[in-house]
Amino acid sequence: xxxxxxxxxxxxxxxxxxxxxxxxxxxxxxxxxxxxxxxxxxxxxxxxxxxxxxxxxxxx
Length: 60
Known about the structure:
This protein is of the alpha+beta class. It has helices spanning 3-8, 55-58; strands at residues 19-21, 26-29, 34-39, 42-43, 51-52. It is globular and about 30 Å long.
């Protein structure tokens, strides 16, 4: 994923910055407690497609 794109993307629910999890190919929103998938290099920024973070993933 293009890191320049990551600089401008924000969580669609909380409007806070996202963090890239390269291992799982996801964009993480700690504020919303969600992980948005990246499919074929394209972030899927739909709440219905996001998975809920585990308690451990929510820790700083």
